[in-house]
UniProtKB/TrEMBL annotation:
This is Type II secretion system protein H. The keyword Membrane applies. The chain crosses the membrane at residues 6-30. Its main location: membrane.
Length: 177
């Protein structure tokens, strides 16, 4: 009797079934990890845009306005406030210094909840004030992922920006609030 080398149909089906079970267990964790990476990346982009605005204000010796939308951030030098939802660069309300659209990063519209509509960064040591009498500092910008994880970016009067996440849903690499 010859000895046949190879796999039987039953062995192949068992391996395929095991791969299916492992994939079914791993998929929710993979989805959560991707959502967390997206929201963490978006929060880091927001902080980078804020530091950019602070640096530009000091470098140009002009005030810089940072405007917050529900899914975008806009930066413009000078005394005019910009609208980050405007994409036409010929419009006078276009954010000419920098425009950050979080939907490009895979963040859905409405996932950004700022406590202020805009801030002004002074060229004098990068001190921050609000452009509205009803807005107060310190301000926060909350970015929420589709799985409910929220990262809060705190903006204080002295120009310091920090990120933290709620203790109920910790995020690796981000300190708890």
């Amino acid at each position: 009797m010859k000895h046949v080398i190879g796999f039987t149909l039953i062995e192949s089906l068992v391996v395929i079934a095991m791969i299916g079970v492992i994939a079914a267990i791993a998929m929710p964790n993979l989805t959560r990890a991707l959502d967390n990476a997206r929201i963490k990346g978006a929060a880091q982009q927001i902080v980078a845009a804020l530091y950019f605005a602070k640096t530009e204000s000091i470098r140009q010796n002009k005030p810089v306005h940072v405007q917050f939308g529900n899914s975008c951030i806009g930066v413009k030098s000078g005394n005019a406030i910009c609208d980050c939802t405007i994409e036409d660069s010929s419009n006078s309300s276009y954010c000419s210094a920098r425009r950050l659209d979080l939907s490009i990063l895979g963040i859905k519209k409405g996932s950004l909840s700022p406590s202020v509509s805009s801030i002004i960064i002074s060229p004098n040591r990068g001190i921050i004030s609000t452009s509205s009498a009803t807005d107060t500092l310190p301000a926060t910008v909350d970015a929420t992922s589709s799985n409910g994880t929220t990262i809060s970016i705190s903006i204080n009067m002295l120009g310091k920006f920090s990120m933290c996440t709620n203790a109920a849903q910790p995020l690796p690499g981000v300190m708890a609030c």
